[in-house]
Amino acid sequence: MFEKIKTNKLPYKADDLPKCATDKYTLPCLTSSFNNQGLNYYVPRNGATILKNVISIPSNSDVYRAYFQSREFTVLSDAYAIRWKSDELMPSQNQYMFMVMCINKVTDLSIYSYKNKLGGWNVVKNKYIQLPKSDGKIDFAFMENFIAELEAQHVAQLETYFSVTGLKDTHLTIEEKQSLQEFDKLEWGKFNLEALYGKSTRGKRLKSADRIPGSLPFVTAGEADEGVSDFIGNDVHIFSKNTTTIDMFGSAKYRNYEYGGDDHVAIVHTEKLPMKAAIFVTTAIHKSSHNGQFDYGRNFYAKDADNLNIVLPVRNGQPDYGKMETIISAIHKLVMAEVVLYADRKSKATIEVVSRNN
Fold first, then answer.
1. Fold for domain 174-325?
2. Which residues contact 2 (CB under 8 A, 6 or more apart)?
3. pTM of the predicted protein model
4. pLDDT, tens digit, for every residue of 299-308?
């Protein structure tokens, strides 16, 4: 049903490319990572094969998760893109999204990893997926309606959540507006992580076979599900909420819940900070620790956290946690404003789709 898209080979290495768009580097490029759906770097548009409305799949990864790419991108390395083969029908975005999940039923499995690779298109093209049928043919109308109605349910839940939590109030205060306007004028300082928050601690190994089902999130290395690999009932050390974890690759994540962790996770004890300040600090940690210097051959450990230096806004030579709170609060409101608009647009679009197909 699908074919691999031929793309021009690009003369770039991921480590040499910017992670944000610049004047010259404007086109997102696909790699084997599943962070941000594999689009974590930018390349020049000149000489690149520009793709859109197709499916991407990593070919050399820990997780072989397919994604529908609705925006322009190109392929850089260790991944590829596929599209619907028949010229008789061009699947809609909803239909592609339905089929992506069917593909993931046979590719995005726990048995596959960097050490036990699934393989590329030569392997995947021979897999079989299940799709809904009607009168002996693929039921595209069902796929369209299913995704539309599923989105409608999620949007309804989202709007209820907004109402209960008051998150629809996205009005920026004068202080929040000022914090964003003056961001480029902030004074910054460099600080050692251990000097600020004490020694980092390390989780303890707990093999999959020894895990007892329960309700405690268990954090391991990896990006899938924010590194939460399981929910356990074992008697393990419970780390406090409002702390930061750094996995073996140097990827930092804020935790607003209690959790357990394995020996590939370092915990930075930011629990005494205000929540939004701790989130800001997590971002500062990630910028210092996740630059490609840690990988399978060179793991990040708690001792590396103790030696890590981070850059924070300062006031009178000390970290200005109040300013950090204000900045995160402002960013949070801006993001929520976009989510509210998205929910409104999706709600209207869903009504139109369901009405048209019924």
1. Adenine-n6-DNA-methyltransferase TaqI; Chain A, domain 2 (3.90.220)
2. 55, 82, 83, 84, 85, 125
3. 0.67
4. 999 999 999 9
